[in-house]
Automatic annotation (TrEMBL):
This is Sec-independent protein translocase protein TatA. One of its GO terms (biological process) is protein transport by the Tat complex. Residues 57-73 have a biased composition (Pro residues). Signal peptide: none annotated. One of its GO terms (molecular function) is protein transmembrane transporter activity. The keyword Transmembrane helix applies. Part of the twin-arginine translocation (Tat) system that transports large folded proteins containing a characteristic twin-arginine motif in their signal peptide across membranes. TatA could form the protein-conducting channel of the Tat system. The keyword Amino-acid biosynthesis does not apply. The gene is tatA. One of its GO terms (cellular component) is TAT protein transport complex. It is found in: Cell membrane.
C-alpha cells in the first residue's frame, strides 16, 4: 500500500500536516529559514574571500639575535646554625 507513494505524495502529506497543525507558526518558520539561508550564504562568501589568505605561505619563525644569558651556577652556602654547615663542634 505504501510502496506506491512517490516524493510528490510525501510532499503533499507534509504540506497538509503543516497546514492543519502549524498554520500560525508557518510565517515564523519561513522567516527563520530565510534568515538561516542568508547567514549561510554570507559565511560561504566570506570563506571564499578568505581562502587566498589561508593558502599564503607562513614565514618561518625567527630566532632572537641576542642569545639568552646563562643561568648562574648554584652555590653551596649554608645558613648559620643549620645542620648542613661543615663546622667543628
Amino acid at each position: 500500500m505504501l510502496a506506491n507513494l512517490t516524493g510528490w505524495h510525501l510532499l503533499i502529506v507534509v504540506f497538509l500536516v503543516l497546514l492543519l497543525f502549524g498554520a500560525p507558526k508557518l510565517p515564523a518558520l519561513a522567516k527563520s529559514v530565510g534568515q538561516s539561508m542568508k547567514i549561510f550564504k554570507n559565511e560561504i562568501k566570506s570563506d571564499k574571500t578568505d581562502a587566498p589568505e589561508a593558502t599564503a605561505p607562513i614565514p618561518p619563525a625567527t630566532t632572537p639575535s641576542v642569545p639568552a644569558a646563562p643561568t648562574p651556577a648554584p652555590t653551596e652556602t649554608a645558613a648559620p646554625g643549620s645542620q648542613d654547615a661543615h663546622t667543628k663542634p
